[in-house]
């Protein structure tokens, strides 16, 4: 009950928001079938935990996407968390790269970027999702995110993240907008100072409720309803069909000539969608959609 749950609290005076998540099962499921090097794996885990902490505050139905892009060896890390706290993640680049630090992994040339995308499910036609982009500054995913929250949102935020082969965990403390009251400022300073004493080992080891009790025992906190987090991909046959349709008949035909079938792998969950020639061609037939009897297979 404690793991894979977003724990949310407020200081009694309403000045500061505290959120904690410790992903264990969801983190294992995200990595199922993958063989990431430890350093790359840990950054992906940290961003996964961060996306849950940030998605917990979404005020709309949809998804929050965190994307870190750089020159390599990891070119892209992308983590998506929906407002229902369904999480998926993907990595592009050399996943088996040697054990090197955050900067060498993603920002070797200093031009790496971090972006945060807010993608409402019900988006007005033609309306682009909101996207904020900042340079990948600092030596950790947490530092890059704090920089982002301050420079794009002007929200004072402290984020602590850690991940290993078993667990991806995070703690977020954030000043809530509202009064600039001196008492509220004092609460913020105290919560921040207490959060700063948290070690990486504690974050990985301790269940959220025990960690919060231990860290903030001298602060009056009100717990809000905890929310479950699951690993779940949103890919579907329908989306892959329409993706192939957009790719165009000529392109699909050239793959069929070369390979005899079309296989699409989901970047997130690695599921394979396989189309034999009649099924692939039926996507471009006058009657939209594959005909009955030649349904594409989904390979798990
Ligand atoms: Zn998928």
Topology:
Layout: E1 5-11, E2 16-23, H1 25-30, H2 38-55, E3 62-69, E4 74-82, E5 86-93, H3 102-106, E6 113-120, E7 130-135, H4 141-153, E8 157-163, E9 168-175, H5 182-195, H6 200-205, H7 208-215, E10 221-228, E11 230-231, H8 237-247, H9 249-259, E12 261-265, E13 272-276, H10 277-282, E14 297-299
Parallel strand pairs: 5-11
Antiparallel strand pairs: 1-2, 1-10, 2-9, 3-4, 3-6, 4-5, 6-7, 8-9, 12-13, 13-14
Helix pairs in contact: 8-9
The structure holds zinc ion.
Based on the model shown, name its key terms.
300 residues; alpha+beta; 6-stranded mixed sheet; 5-stranded antiparallel sheet; 14 strands; 33% helix; elongated; binds zinc ion
Structure notes:
33% of the residues lie in helices and 31% in strands. With 300 residues, it is α+β, with helices and mostly antiparallel strands. A 6-stranded mixed sheet has the order 7-6-3-4-5-11. A hairpin with a 6-residue loop joins β12 and β13 (272-276). α8 (237-247) crosses α9 (249-259). Zinc ion (ZN) binds next to loops.
Briefly characterize the structure.
The protein has 10 helices and 14 strands. With 300 residues, the protein is an alpha+beta fold.
Instruction: Return residue spans where pLDDT drops below 50 for at least 5 consecutive residues.
Output: 289-293
The percent of residues in helical segments reads 25-40%
> Termini separation (Å)?
28 Å
Write the H/E string, N to C: EEHHEEEHEEHEEHHHEEHHEEHE
What structural class is derived from the secondary structure elements? alpha+beta
Mean pLDDT: 89
What fraction strand?
A: 25-35%
- The largest sheet has its strands arranged as 7-6-3-4-5-11
SS element count, helices? 10
Bound molecules: zinc ion
Number of strand elements: 14
Q: Quick one: overall form?
A: elongated
Compute the gyration radius: what is it? 22 Å
Task: Profile the largest sheet.
Answer: 6 strands, mixed
């Amino acid at each position: 009950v404690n793991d894979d749950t977003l724990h949310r609290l407020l200081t009694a005076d309403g000045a500061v928001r505290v959120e904690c998540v410790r992903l264990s099962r969801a983190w294992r499921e995200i990595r199922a079938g993958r063989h990431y090097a430890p350093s790359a794996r840990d950054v992906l885990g940290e961003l996964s935990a961060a996306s849950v902490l940030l998605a917990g505050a979404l005020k709309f139905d949809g998804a929050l996407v965190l994307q870190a892009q750089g020159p390599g060896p990891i070119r892209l890390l992308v983590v998506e968390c929906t407002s229902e706290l369904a999480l998926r993640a993907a990595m592009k680049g050399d996943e088996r790269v040697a054990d090197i630090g955050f900067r060498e992994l993603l920002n070797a040339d200093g031009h790496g970027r971090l972006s945060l995308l807010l993608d409402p499910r019900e988006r007005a036609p033609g309306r682009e999702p909101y996207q904020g982009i900042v340079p990948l500054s600092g030596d950790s995913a947490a530092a890059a995110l704090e920089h982002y929250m301050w420079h794009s949102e002007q929200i004072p935020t402290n984020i602590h993240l850690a991940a290993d082969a078993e667990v991806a965990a995070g703690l977020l403390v954030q000043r809530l907008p509202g009064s600039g009251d001196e008492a509220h400022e004092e609460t913020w300073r105290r919560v921040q100072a207490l959060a700063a004493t948290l070690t990486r080992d504690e974050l990985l080891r301790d269940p959220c409720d025990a960690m919060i009790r231990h860290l903030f025992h001298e602060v009056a906190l009100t717990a809000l309803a905890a929310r479950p987090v699951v690993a779940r991909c949103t890919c579907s046959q329908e989306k892959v069909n329409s993706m192939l349709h957009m790719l165009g008949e000529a392109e699909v035909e050239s793959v069929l000539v070369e390979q005899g079938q079309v296989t699409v792998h989901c970047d997130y969950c690695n599921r394979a969608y396989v189309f034999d020639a009649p099924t692939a061609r039926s996507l471009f037939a006058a009657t939209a959609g594959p005909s009955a009897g030649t349904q594409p297979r989904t390979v798990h």
